[in-house]
Amino acid sequence: MSSVGGMAITDKVRFGILGCAKIARQVARAISLSEECELHAVGSRSLEKAVSFVLDNGLPASVRIYGSYEAVLDDPEVDAAYIPLPTTLHMEIAVLAAKRKKHVLLEKPVALNIGELDRILEACRANGVQFMDGTMWMHHPRTAKMKEALLDVSRFGQLKLIHSFISYNAGPEFLENDIRVKPDLDALGALGDIGWYCIRSILWAVNYQLPNKVVAMHEPVYNDAGVILSAGASLYWSDGKVATFHCSFLNHMAFEVTAFGTTGIIRVSDIITPFQDKYATFYSSSVSDFAEVEPGQWAPAPKEHRVDADVPQEVVMVSEFARLVSGINTRVSKPDEEWVNISRKTQLVLDAVKDSLMKNYQSVEIIE
């Protein structure tokens, strides 16, 4: 079997997982289900925790188990690192992974600020490895269908407004003990955990055109340690587009995104995780008005669109990442910069929202 760069051309991409967070279970399953991937190693701060993760999730006996993150990165047979660690550790571990020539699949939020993210991206470029963040919904086939609907000017018209509302009622145990409310682990709180999704959905709708300015909404909620539990913002573009979002650990679960055009709207109610594994839906309406025959009814009524999925969106994500990695390792292609740019723009907007909050809701300009 021939090989290039230490990877056999016909081999699957071998993943090492660094950390045993809840989301890591979902991605470990996705790696196992993907035809392009193989779970090669799992590492945690303690060997016992890594062993429990492998056993509790029924992972293959062939998976190597390590008692440190560094040991996974030192394994010469690991091609790519999936990093679901607390955000505070992202820069250190992702940079180390890149220097070890491991491709980086990094959970969101990818960094505490743009400075940290740029150090990660510089390390990835310097070492010729692929970077991608773990925003799973981007890879669902529904996402491509919704973009088609957005670009259908004959039905949707011109995009004018986007609203994203993403929340879940985390409960007292979460609000007291989860890493996402600890300033030394995930200091961005709800803004990083689910505000990232809100911002990404807005940027996706505007084809990643950065807003000119951002203004945080009044009355955010912080815990006693100063971590954001609930917040929102408005985003403005020079051509008149406007977007608003709200993210919260304190409201009932909602994953809503609506895009409003001059002649149509597109709405999705489960943007982060579809209600079903096998398919996902979204709604659209175009040139609707009140019906003349039956007053009070819409004519035409909003239409439900169903998009089937052969596998869960996280499987599509790791498969797409693996194909990029394989192309690089076999010298067929270079690292894809599109995913880098999307992550960086998301971080820039997130930073601007946080800056506006710190400046008592003043308008903050975004300079790329």
User: How many domains in all?
Assistant: 2
Give the DSSP E fraction (strand runs of 2 or more residues): 25-35%
Characterize the quaternary organization of these chains.
single chain
Sheet with the most strands?
A: 10 strands, mixed
- Based on CA atoms alone, the radius of gyration comes out at 21 Å
Tell me the number of strands. Answer: 20
**Distance between the amino and carboxyl termini:** 46 Å
Q: Would you tell me the structural class of the helices and strands?
A: alpha/beta
Regarding CATH, which class of the largest domain?
Alpha Beta
**Low-confidence spans: pLDDT under 50, at least 5 residues?**
1-10
Mean of the pLDDT scores? 95
Give an overview in words.
The protein is of the alpha/beta class and 368 residues long. The chain has 2 domains: 3-135 and 314-335, NAD(P)-binding Rossmann-like Domain (Rossmann fold), CATH 3.40.50; 141-308 and 347-365, Dihydrodipicolinate Reductase, domain 2 (2-Layer Sandwich). It contains 12 helices and 20 strands. It has helices at residues 22-33, 47-56, 69-74, 90-99, 114-126, 141-150, 153-156, 171-177, 189-193, 195-205, 313-329, 337-358; strands spanning 3-4, 7-8, 13-18, 37-43, 64-66, 80-83, 103-106, 131-133, 159-167, 213-216, 221-222, 228-236, 242-248, 254-261, 264-268, 279-286, 289-290, 298-299, 303-308, 364-365. Strands 9, 10, 11, 12, 13, 14, 15, 16, 19 and 20 form a 10-stranded mixed beta sheet that branches. Strands 5-4-3-6-7-8 form a 6-stranded parallel beta sheet, with helices on both faces. The chain starts with a strand and ends with a strand. Residues 1-10 have low confidence and may be disordered.
